[in-house]
């Protein structure tokens, strides 16, 4: 029984590829890029005087200790203001587990101030050391450590927004259909459409549309690997009217076409 349980956990190692990591006590980097095919989580502290951060047109000036994400989609820019510097750590990865985190609302969609009471610098250093080891157990500890970190950040966001009881109940409703009717859900919650969208974004860090799409793509991955269904049948199961549109949306999110994804994972 104990061995079987360990084997199930080790299967997660194949669902996230740890790509890169870094740590610099005197970072002066100026970054301006679009990420393609991978994501990173960044931890910054000791910022002098402040850190400019932008996702497309959304701009922030950070002071103190912060986590912030980077992922495919928005144009990411950051640099210290007034030629300053900061203490910077990051870890990058790719794979279906990241898609799952995002679909479950664990992933950060914007910067988050580091919650008080934790030694985040040491925690992030542990992630980097486990990743550097390169062996399966080290990778598993790193993956579990990243997920634990994301859960703690989600919990902090939920506490700031009045707890997660409402969110838990609402996600059950949202998950019940691959193409949810947001307007109908808003009426059921007794909220306007815009009020529901704001409440969901405040509680999860992502939009309802993005959450639903990530769930859809995660389900598509599972069907591609666990069944021999045609792309047309998978598209229909997921509520797509067009196989072509399903394939295009899958490629935009995953980076490869559905058929290519299925062949590469089954080798």
Summarize the structure.
This protein is α+β, with helices and mostly antiparallel strands and 267 residues long. It has 11 helices and 9 strands. 50% of the residues lie in helices and 22% in strands.
Characterise the protein shown here.
It is a single chain. With 267 residues, this protein is an alpha+beta fold. The protein has 2 domains: 2-160, Regulatory protein AraC (Jelly Rolls, Sandwich), CATH 2.60.120; 165-265, Orthogonal Bundle (Arc Repressor Mutant, subunit A), CATH 1.10.10. It contains 11 helices and 9 strands. A 5-stranded antiparallel sheet has the order 1-8-3-6-9. A 4-stranded antiparallel sheet has the order 2-7-4-5, with no helix packed on it.
Strand content: 15-25%
Tell me about the largest β-sheet: 5 strands, antiparallel
Q: Return the average pLDDT rounded to an integer.
A: 85
Distance between the termini: 29 Å
Helix content: 40-55%
As for the CATH topology of the largest domain, it is: Jelly Rolls
If helices are DSSP runs of H or I spanning 4 or more residues, what is the number of helices? Answer: 11
Low-confidence stretches: 1-9
Order of SSEs? HEEEEEEEEHEHHHHHHHHH
By CATH reckoning, the class of the largest domain would read Mainly Beta
Globular, elongated, flat, extended or rod-shaped: what is the shape?
A: globular
Total discrete domains: 2
Radius of gyration of CA atoms, rounded to a whole number: 20 Å
Strand order of the biggest β-sheet: 1-8-3-6-9
Let me know the CATH homologous superfamily of the largest domain. Answer: Regulatory protein AraC
Class of secondary structure makeup: alpha+beta
CATH architecture of the largest domain: Sandwich
Instruction: Count all strands and give the number.
Output: 9
């Amino acid at each position: 029984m104990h061995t079987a349980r360990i084997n199930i956990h080790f299967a997660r190692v194949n669902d996230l590829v740890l790509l890169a990591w870094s740590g610099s006590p005197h970072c002066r980097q100026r970054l301006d890029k679009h990420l393609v095919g991978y994501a990173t989580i960044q931890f910054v502290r000791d910022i002098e005087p402040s850190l400019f951060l932008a996702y497309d047109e959304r701009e922030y000036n950070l002071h103190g200790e912060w986590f912030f994400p980077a992922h495919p989609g928005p144009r990411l820019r950051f640099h210290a203001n007034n030629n300053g510097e900061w203490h910077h750590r990051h870890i990058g990865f790719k794979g279906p587990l990241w898609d799952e985190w995002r679909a479950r609302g664990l992933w950060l969609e914007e910067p988050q101030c580091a919650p008080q009471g934790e030694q985040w610098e040491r925690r992030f250093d542990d992630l980097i050391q486990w990743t550097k080891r390169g062996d399966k157990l080290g990778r598993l500890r790193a993956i579990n450590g990243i997920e634990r970190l994301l859960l703690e950040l989600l919990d902090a966001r939920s506490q700031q927004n009045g707890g997660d009881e409402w969110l838990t109940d609402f996600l059950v409703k949202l998950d019940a259909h691959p193409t949810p009717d947001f307007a109908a859900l808003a009426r059921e919650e007794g909220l306007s459409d815009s009020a529901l969208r704001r409440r969901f974004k405040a509680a999860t860090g992502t939009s309802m549309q993005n959450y639903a799409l990530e769930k859809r793509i995660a389900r598509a991955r599972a069907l591609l690997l666990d069944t021999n269904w045609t792309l047309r049948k998978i598209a229909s199961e997921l509520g797509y009217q067009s196989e072509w549109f399903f394939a295009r949306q899958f490629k935009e999110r995953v980076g490869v076409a559905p058929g290519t994804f299925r062949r590469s994972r089954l080798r």
